[in-house]
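Lecture 7 notes: from sequence to structure.

We start with a single chain of 215 residues. Read the sequence below before looking at the structure.
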Amino acid sequence: MSEKNGNENKGDLTEGVLHHDTLEKNPFELFDDWYSHAQASEINDPDAMALASVNAHGIPSVRIVLLKAWSADGFVFFTNYNGRKAHELLETKKAAACIHWKTLRRQVRIVGDVEKISASKSDEYFSTRARGSQIGAWASEQSQPLKTRDELSKKVAEFEEKFADKPVPRPPHWGGFIIKPVEIEFWADGAFRLHDRFKLQPDENNHWQATRLNP
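Now the structure, written as tokens:
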């Protein structure tokens, strides 16, 4: 199988590369910085995140979700609690995620434990969603078989009528998860595939330690 050239023939790529062997050891501050650049440069969805889960039998699955918040506690996204991803996350309490910003030639990998966020925080975020998305959260039985698109449209119409002229409450089957990272890796593209990679992990005192990795 032939390999595409990619950046094999590019010259020195300096922008975004982590030049120093010492790295700021607060991964959340570095993530803030990288994300702010991504917001300015990415054409679509700088918050798009590939989320990987595994079921109790070790079968993996991956899909794109939207990263909606992060702090020193972890990385938050929202979903239907009855869907496949939620079932797998609740089975194993583990997840991995990857955010790739193509225009910046950077990516961040996250590995950690997963748990639901509080109902109040899920309510708070749900209230900010577009009304159509709120209705959709009620109408969609995520991951379940659907005979026709018309069937879904009818359910949307039913909930639009049900919640006409009043706020749409959060469905009990919809809310947030948080990934509490045990490992975060920052990757910056380098010329001739000599990329910069740093893995950060918390020690026993919850202080993040950085290790430079081979590309």
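Helices lie at 27-41, 84-92, 119-126, 131-139, 149-162. Keep this in mind for problem set 3.
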